[in-house]
Design a protein that fits this description.
Layout lengths: L1 H27 L4 H25 L3 H17 L18 H4 L1 H23 L3 H22 L2
Helix pairs in contact: 2-3, 2-6, 3-5, 5-6
The structure holds heme C (HEC).
């Protein structure tokens, strides 16, 4: 019995691993217009955060500079990507985005500031500031999600 479990566990782990990206794709299913656009942008941001982590670990500040520069336009566009009433399924946007517009704007500003600081640190070749900036950037993602995403 134990050896059966030992054999089956890696298979389960693999199956879960393979299923994970499919769940992501399903989340976008049925999404259209601005909701799909912003979901795509956020998915892209998740990939860019992974790329940033890798670049920082490799001490490749040039890439950190390029990736953060690529991310900046979305920080500026984000506010316009949430028109009132665009919280219908499959969107995970919370009504607080519209009932607390100042708080949401502040969360976007925090993201923009963290991203800009990380970009500057990378361009200045300051590895310490870049690693702190990356942490602040990650915190700005989760802080916003905590209040404004299901
Ligand atoms: C100012 C708020 C805010 C910030 C900052 C923010 N997000 Fe989000 N994020 C949201 C909201 C709201 C949604 C839900 C959008 C929807 O489903 O309509 C979301 C959705 C997502 C999703 C799911 C997309 C999908 O496929 O459904 C991912 C992944 C994500 N964000 C990653 C990030 C990452 C990584 C960062 C930081 C680099 C970030 N977000 C910064 C508010 C934010």
């Amino acid at each position: 019995m134990r050896s059966f479990i030992k054999r089956i566990l890696p298979l389960i782990a693999t199956a879960l691993f393979l299923a994970a990206p499919m769940q992501g794709a399903q989340a976008h299913e049925g999404a259209s217009g601005i909701v799909k656009e912003r979901m795509d942008k956020f998915s892209q941001a998740r990939g860019q955060m992974r790329a940033l982590r890798g670049a920082l670990q490799a001490g490749d500040l040039a890439s950190v500079g390029t990736i953060t520069a690529d991310m900046l336009p979305w920080a500026k566009e984000m506010a316009d990507a949430f028109p009132e009433g665009s919280d219908k399924a499959p969107s995970e946007a919370l009504p607080a985005i519209w009932t607390d517009p100042d708080g949401f704007a502040a969360a976007i500003a925090a993201y923009d500031e963290a991203l800009t600081a990380l970009n500057k640190a990378a361009l200045a070749g300051d590895a310490n500031a870049a690693s702190n900036g990356f942490r602040s950037l990650g915190a700005s993602c989760s802080n916003c999600h905590r209040s404004y995403r299901k």
